[in-house]
Amino acid sequence: MSMRAVLEEWSLMEKVVAVVSDNASSMLKACELLQKRNLPCFAHTINFVVQDCLAQDYVKTTLGKCKKIVSYFKSSTISYEKFKADQGRDMPHSLKQEVPTRWNSALRMVESILLTNNSISNVLLMTPKAPLPLTADDIEFLQDLKQLLIPFDAATVQTSSSAAVTISLVVPLTCGLFKSLDELKSTMKTSEGHQACIFLLERIKKRLFPYEERTVTRLGTLLDPRFKKEGFLFPSNADGGTQFLQNELSGMNKNNTMEQDNLEPSCSKNIHQSSQPPLLKFVGNKIASKVRSHQVNAIISLRQYFENENAALEIDPLQYWKNCSGQMSLTKSCALRYLCVPATSTEAERMFSKTGAIISERRSSLKPKNVDMLLFVNKNCWVSKEL
């Protein structure tokens, strides 16, 4: 069954604001055929940024030494036991190996090596035919690399949640990543660390800055009471998003007015007009024209929203809009429409992983409806634990 057929079957076609996917050309084509906006998964894009850095020769060389050391300990039970014993802990630390498909596994590997480097060196120096331990220069570079990768890991985790608003975090986190690395540039101890920092800054500009120009991410940030216009790196992008949001609200206001006009009896207008004193009829006409100015209503609604104090960073934006009413009801409707978009496709990938675990060779005869029920139970139990 095609995606269009599924969306139409569940009457979701008009409710889809954007399709979040990886950067594959096939996904872009599918969105084009569906005539829906495509939003590249933020986690995938971060992965590209970091993987580009890890692929540089000066980074690959040091990481290659780390992988060789971890592989040695993982393949030698005796050496691994000596490594644990040398730590002198009841619960010794273990070593993590890098997985090519997940960049943050490189960070975990670096962290585990920095944490246990003394024990690693002690065992390697006392073991014949073991790999050479890391040099002091290698350790300094790994410390620099760890500082550079931690902000990317934090951004990935924050935008991969399935129990909170994430779309509004994309633009502020991009801004935060750029500013954090720009500040780290002067703290790098090694030339390789400094070079990696500059490389990552350039990749952020190339791959992550465009999110500040995308409609969905711009509106998501503007409609999050924690950020509004202050979440942007470039004021021009905030202004452009505000203009688009204003037009969006104006269109929604126009549609709402048309619906009300269709529901309102025509005689009520005549009664209202006939009850006006003749000499003050011009006032009623002006009021009527003022009410019908959808653009003005949108401007007033947005001005009221933007001039209010920003919400605290720990506030749930959905809870904020739930408690709002009155003149901001139209802005509230728009906020709920855009804030529901996820920043990443992580949840879909989690579902694929769960499906792969459920549909095994021993369960090859499961009927589709039973698979759906198992996935539903599995998913909802996982969400309840997370909440």
UniProtKB/TrEMBL annotation:
Coiled coil: none annotated. Keywords: Metal-binding, Nucleus, Zinc, Zinc-finger. This is E3 SUMO-protein ligase ZBED1-like. It is found in: Nucleus. SUPFAM superfamilies: Ribonuclease H-like. The lineage of its organism: Eukaryota, Metazoa, Ecdysozoa, Arthropoda, Hexapoda. Residues 302-380 form the HAT C-terminal dimerisation domain. PANTHER family: ZINC FINGER BED DOMAIN-CONTAINING PROTEIN 39, ZINC FINGER BED DOMAIN-CONTAINING PROTEIN 4. It comes from the Eukaryota. InterPro entries: HATC_C_dom, RNaseH-like_sf, ZnF_BED_domain_contain. Its main location: nucleus. The keyword Zinc-finger applies. The keyword Transmembrane does not apply.
